[in-house]
Amino acid sequence: MSVFKCFTVLITVVLTVYSVKPREAYSDHAPEKRPNILFVIADDQSYPHAGAYGYQAARTPHFDRIASEGVLFTNAFSASPGCSPSRAAILTGLNCWQIKEAGTHASSFPTEFQVFPDLLEKAGYKVGYTGKGWSPGDFKASGRSRNPAGDAFLDQKQQSPKGISDVDYAGNFKTFYDEKEKDKPFFFWLGTHEPHRTYQKGIGAANGFDSNKVKVPPFLPDVPEVRSDILDYLYEIQWFDTQLGKVLKQLEQSGELDNTLIVVTADNGMSFPRAKANVYEYGIHVPLAIRWGNQIRKGFKTNDLVSLIDVYATFLEVGKAALPAYPIESKSLLPLLKSGKSNREAIFSSRERHSSSRYNNLGYPQRSIRTAQYLFIKNYKPDRWPAGDPQKIDANGKLEAPNTAFHDIDESADNIVIREWRDPKIAPYFHLATDKRPAEEFYDIVNDPGCLQNLIGDKQYLQQIGKLRSKLTDYQRTTKDPRETGNGDYLDSFPRLNGEIRNFPAPK
Questions:
Q1: Whole-angstrom Cα distance, residue 475 to residue 481?
Q2: Is 27 buried (19+), middle (13-18) or exposed (0-12) by CB count in 10 A?
Q3: What is the pLDDT of residues 232-271, one digit of tens each?
Q4: How many Cβ atoms from other residues are within 10 Å of residue 322's Cβ?
Q5: Chain centroid to CA 501: how far?
Q6: Residues whose CB is less than 8 angstroms from the CB of residue 25 and which lie 6 or more positions away in sequence, other chains included
Q7: Which residue ranges in the chain fall short of pLDDT 50?
Q8: What pLDDT was estimated at residue 508?
């Protein structure tokens, strides 16, 4: 008998005597416990308005905790600067121009696109949401039986200040959790309605927020009324953060905190002129922090570019759920979370219709590509007003005063930039927010985060502009963007199913 055969017989005897199975032969071991997933999303919060980013006027201790015990992202971007299309892109892992009606504001959500809560549910997860899931829009018009974010948990209410939702987000999470079968993993979408307008005027200052610590974005006038408005916005961010803290406490008490992948972010930027509903920096650049016990790095800050659509592939990978049969644009964040391996060189964002703001309910189609330093934008309809038509027709069929509409700016009538447009101190900011824009824009974000200096005609940047223009166009063609394939107006045809339909005069 050879030496090798003797060694094999010896090992077999030892394993038999001690009843030890080779590792791969185990069939009765406990299956690996899959993690829970908690997705916490604010409504209209720009980067860098959180304490973890060094913004001294903000009060966000629970977001800051997630950042210190996980990974903090400084370059996270939404797929759209508007809530409904941004959330649809997150849910599908696709760009807004790829998801038909779901890629515009307040329309429907075709069933041909598989949302990750459904796929996680098929993989054995209990799924649910509270507050704002996919919204606004009519998912039933597409044949869906529930919100794409999952089963609704909305019954629990709480007392809240004027302008803030009375949904008890943490109470609804507890109801959801208590219904869950023991040892069954969960996915829960906690979507607050804050800090979306309207705000209770002066609530920030009344609660001790310090206007001297506010950094007014350069596209807004630095006047007391704007500083106070930003304090009201920061108060609502604190409200959002408090809801997050309540749920974290519940997870700790249940012993599930470290077995829960927690993602905290926002759908798009702050609802101020030239921010939300614009693919400028303050419209698409959002906060993002992720915590997952010992499974990812702790206390790490990354400047790598990520898109919010990347949570789609991340959640399905973590939950061991099947990907859809068709290609997606989402890229898992796990390599970045675990080892720092970046997965993107550029981010793509877009918008079509935001609100009912123009004649015949038309939108303002934009596409953009954002790298670590530059932002390149295509405006497909430069003849349209970017903030909405300047005036509208009232209920009696009469034309209202000029420069009083601009309904792509939330609560435009109450906004100082619109209301005081004749004031010489305000006028420059009014024009920044509302004037028509060229077909292309290019900004050096590192030196101009407010996107004030359009460098599209600067010969110094010809190489960078050409490179980004080509890269954006190539990507649009690869992903069959109708704005590049010759059928762009098709994206203006989707019906608006929620909200007011306003009347505007026909363009001259």
A1: 9
A2: exposed
A3: 999 999 999 999 999 999 999 999 999 999 999 999 999 9
A4: 12
A5: 25
A6: none
A7: 1-31
A8: 83
CA 477 to chain CA centroid, Å, is 24
- 276: tokens are 């939300």
User: Residue 33: what pLDDT?
Assistant: 85
**CA dist 484 → 383, 476, 488 (Å):** 18, 7, 7
- The pLDDT of residue 23 is 25
d(CA 87, CA 151): 16
Q: Indicate the SS3 state at residue 508.
A: coil
CA-wise closest residue to 104 among 354, 361, 278, 328:
354
DSSP H helices, 70-145, are 83-92, 116-122
Query: What type of residue is 212?
Result: N
What is the C-alpha to C-alpha distance for residues 100 and 413, in angstroms, rounded to an integer?
A: 31
Q: Which two tokens stand for residue 218?
A: 């350069």
Three-state SS letters, 164-219 = CCCECHHHHHHHHHHHCCCCCCEEEEEECCCCCCCCCCCHHHHCCCCHHHCCCCCC
Buried b (16+ CB within 10 A) or exposed e, 433-468: bbeebeeebbbbbeeebbbeeebbeeeebeebbeeb
Closest CA to 337 of 373, 372, 308, 301: 301
395-410 as b/e: b if 16+ CB within 10 A: eeeeeeeeeebbbbbb
State both tokens at 75.
Answer: 């370059």
Peptide bond into 48 cis (omega under 30): yes
Q: What is the pLDDT of residue 176?
A: 98
Q: Which helix (H) or strand (E) holds 151?
A: strand 151-152
Cβ pair 101, 494 in contact under 8 A: yes
Q: How many other C-beta atoms lie within 10 A of the C-beta of residue 317?
A: 13
Question: What backbone phi and psi angles, to 5 degrees, belong to 466?
Answer: -60, -40
Residue type, 81: P
Q: Per the structure block, which two tokens stand in for 471?
A: 């890269």
Residue 343: what pLDDT? 84
Q: Which domains does the chain have, with CATH numbers?
A: 36-344 (3.40.720.10), 350-492 (3.30.1120.10)
Bridging pattern class, strands 285-291 and 260-266: antiparallel
The beta-strand segments (E) located in 380-418 are none
DSSP designation for 20: P
DSSP code per residue over 229-284: HHHHHHHHHHHHHHHHHHHHHHHHHTT-GGGEEEEEEESS--SSTTSTTSSSHHHH
Give Cα separations from 326 to 138, 323, 329, 406 (angstroms): 24, 8, 10, 39
